[in-house]
Write a structure and sequence with these properties.
Number of domains: 3
Shape: elongated
Number of helices: 11
Strand content: 25-35%
CATH topology of the largest domain: Rossmann fold
Radius of gyration: 33 Å
Structural class: alpha+beta
Largest sheet: 6 strands, mixed
CATH class of the largest domain: Alpha Beta
């Protein structure tokens, strides 16, 4: 319990009265009378505060929240006292998450319940704990204040941003792909699995004509095909130091994980199996599965996965995938290609291509979007533009080396990554490249 500003001010006045008495500017008994008055008022006020029970408190927050998305937190306080209470409240949210609306002063009416909310934005994934909530209560005369900790402990799991997936849950896979940003020209009749027989239409390819059925029907009959299902997509995600770079509020690895979940969702809606191998820093493997329930399993397996400040061993990642994934799959390797890593990356991709169809998605930093012909005002600007030009050139050469050995390369920013992955996956299926 500590004195409130009102009591501190009263004590200062009492001390000034003592100073005036020393210089014979005030009656001799004034300081003692003032001190006695303050004591007579302050002691009962302090006793009343000590006997005041803490308000009842509840926190309303989902057990699972997405990273990087602002969420409201509802606090519900109930005052059981027959008089109103004034208190300051501060919730002990995890880490250094951005918070708006705390601390807050609130007046609790007698016997009433008050709701207040604040907003926070989880900045990293994993399991986090709200340790409790601090209340600062004031005495009836506002002469004292007391800090109290309410043990309102709550554990929250922060997952990759699944909000876009929820928006796509009630619509078809084709429309969902377009919403993500993937644009593919629809081609009727092409695919790898037979669907139906129908009359020949102008523009049908000769290979679509079923000659036996045409002979029986005495007219041309074409075969319709649908895109083959039950294929497999393996997401190979870099967890090394390259993915620690940040664009906006999230690290590249978080953008990578969000995009991986998006293409996984589209692939599962298409009837394919999806698996994941995280390698380079922390290693984690999720065997390919089918069915939309796989998304929940993927979220549970990756919500606490993070990039680490370690160099990525691409050859080791390729070896792990080869041992665990025997069936031919579309391997989407998401990383940040650098010139100094290209030899190891080329060897790893070459090893994977013996069995799988490989696509390398290379994340491009937003800083590379700056034009190289920007004005140069001083030496620092000249060095910056020169370094940027050299980096872009080395990056381009690395991508060309990958393409030279038959590897698909997606050079994209974090914002472009989800649409690029979905579009490439759908293009591979429609071309029957698996």
């Amino acid at each position: 319990m500590r004195p409130a500003p009102a009591l501190v001010a009263a004590l200062i006045v009492c001390a000034l009265a003592g100073v005036l008495t020393v210089f014979a500017l005030a009656p001799p008994g004034l300081p003692l009378a003032a001190a006695a008055l303050i004591l007579a008022v302050a002691l009962p006020d302090a006793l009343a505060l000590r006997r005041t029970p803490s308000p009842q408190l509840e926190r309303e927050l989902p057990q699972v929240v997405p990273v990087g998305v602002e969420r409201p937190v509802l606090l519900r306080l109930r005052n059981a006292m027959p008089r109103a209470q004034v208190c300051d409240i501060h919730d002990h949210h995890p880490g250094d998450w951005p918070v708006f609306g705390l601390p807050r002063r609130v007046v609790l009416p007698a016997g009433r319940e008050v709701e207040l909310s604040y907003h926070l934005t989880p900045s990293e994934r994993g399991a986090f704990t709200f340790e409790g909530c601090d209340l600062r209560l004031f005495s009836p005369l506002r002469l004292w204040r007391q800090q109290r900790r309410l043990p309102l402990v709550q554990t929250v799991r922060v997952y990759p941003n699944f909000a876009p997936l929820a928006k796509l849950a009630l619509i078809g896979a084709e429309r969902a792909s377009r919403i993500v940003g993937a644009h593919l020209k629809r081609r009727r009749g092409e695919g790898t699995e037979f669907q139906q027989l129908r009359e020949y239409r102008s523009g049908d390819a000769l290979r679509q004509i079923d000659w036996k059925a045409s002979q029986r029907a005495r007219k041309l009959i074409s075969r319709d095909y649908q895109i083959e299902r039950n294929q497999q997509v393996l997401l190979l995600i870099d967890t090394g130091r390259r993915m620690l770079a940040r664009d906006g509020n999230l690290a590249h690895f978080d953008h990578c994980l969000n995009a991986a979940l998006m293409v996984a969702y589209i692939a599962l809606r298409q009837g394919d199996g999806v698996g994941l191998l995280a390698a380079g820093g922390e290693t984690r493997y999720f065997a390919p599965r089918r069915g939309l329930g796989t998304i929940d399993a993927l979220l549970n397996s990756t919500f606490d996965l993070h990039a680490t400040p370690l160099a990525t061993d691409y050859l080791d990642a390729a070896k792990q995938l080869a041992l665990r994934q025997q069936r031919r799959s579309l391997v989407l390797l998401i990383t940040n290609v650098r010139d100094e890593d290209i030899d190891d990356l080329l060897s790893a991709v070459r090893q994977l291509q013996k069995r799988h169809l490989v696509c390398v998605a290379s994340l491009r930093e937003q800083a590379l979007e700056r034009p190289l012909d920007q004005p140069v005002a001083d030496l620092a600007d000249a060095i910056g533009v020169g370094a940027l030009a050299q980096y872009v050139e080395q990056r381009t050469h690395a991508h060309e080396a990958l393409r030279a050995q038959g590897t698909d390369v997606l050079d994209v920013t974090c914002a472009e990554l989800p649409a690029a992955l979905v579009q490439h996956y759908l293009a591979v299926k429609r071309a029957a490249r698996l």
